[in-house]
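User: tokens in, sequence out, please.
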């Protein structure tokens, strides 16, 4: 259950990073960078701390980095789901 919570927090962090980018396609205009990027960094750090509570140091960092890389690559494709 906790794995799902930390996976979702990592997903939200990547989504917030994407939505603050000026090339994002989900919203009409990008979110303000200062507030939302700080929140995204905070969510990423909280998810890392959560992964550290579940796994050993090396496994937690590996899972966290692998998820960040995977989700950072997949989040931009969300905008293609609703298009026709």
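Assistant: Sequence out:
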């Amino acid at each position: 259950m906790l794995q799902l919570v930390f996976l979702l927090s990592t997903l939200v962090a990547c989504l917030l990073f994407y939505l603050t980018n000026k090339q994002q396609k989900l919203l009409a205009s990008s979110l303000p960078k200062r507030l939302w990027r700080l929140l995204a960094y905070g969510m990423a750090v909280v998810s890392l701390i959560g992964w550290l509570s579940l796994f050993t140091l090396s496994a937690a960092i590996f899972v966290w980095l692998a998820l960040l890389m995977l989700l950072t690559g997949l989040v931009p494709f969300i905008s293609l789901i609703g298009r026709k």
